[in-house]
Predict the structure.
Amino acid sequence: MTKQNSHEKRPLLLEIKEICKSFVSKKSVVKAVDRVSFNIHKGETYALVGESGCGKTTTGRMILRLLDVDKGQILFEGIPISTLTKRQLRKKRHNIQIIFQNPYGSLNPRMKISTLLAEAISSRAENPSHIRAEAERLLQSVGLGKENLDKYPHEFSGGQRQRICIARAIATNPKLIICDEPVSALDLLVQAQILSLLQKLQKEYGFSYLFISHDLSVVRYMSDRIGVMCNGRIVEEGTRDEIFENPQHSYTRLLFASLPTLKNADAFAAADIQEDTEIFQKVLRDVKERSNKKIYVSQTHYLLADQ
Ligand SMILES: Nc1ncnc2c1ncn2[C@@H]1O[C@H](COP(=O)(O)OP(=O)(O)O)[C@@H](O)[C@H]1O
Ligand SMILES: [Mg+2]
């Protein structure tokens, strides 16, 4: 069985049901996330892909409860985390971790790596005498030697800092890691190394990823299933192969058309579409107005209907 279809047999970890989030300012209301639903199974990588501003980060922040949902529900192992109190949430917090695009911004520059990791390790009440040994083990599992424990974040390269953030994320034994554009700020070669590290760790520890990215080639490499986001909505969802080999929604096709090096891009008359930004704007507007009716291409593949 390939990794791709094996997810269906695994238990559910995260269920997102029709969540909405608007940001209201004096001038306008931005519907950042609009009736978004998807599930993530244990050990699975679900990717949210879409252009900048389509609502990916806002979705991740609601799962972490850094933002409250306006409507809808988020269940983690069957428990509605979107309505837990702060106290109940604290007990669950170690289960969900995040890795950001900018590893420097998320590491306190005044803390040694040993302290940064110790903080995370102690959240699962490890025996204090084991903390340093555990920090060494974590660094090793992300490909860094123990001599790095007494250094500060500025002494590392961007890729090494991202490895430290990954070590800190796995320190709490999470069940889900949200990766929000985790390699977008890195050089291509370093990107590949970090992505393969993330895959190796998933095999070792068995956690699930919500992998957020605007980069289709990264998503193709990482994901089991994909939700294509456009203007706050998921317009198409399917397994990686279904989305890449048989994209159905006009927005998904536009995304692929903007990547001429990908196999299949030719099939969608890329040149015609690419030059016509009006079509693009129309797709964006239409998506906003659509109902939640789905058209199923297969059991695992749907697109949002036109009406
Ligand atoms: N705190 C905020 N206040 C106001 N608007 C926001 C806030 N966060 C995000 N937005 C808006 O919500 C939309 C979705 O943003 P975001 O979730 O960051 O998208 P993405 O991660 O896909 O680039 C954008 O239009 C963005 O400007
Ligand atoms: Mg974002």
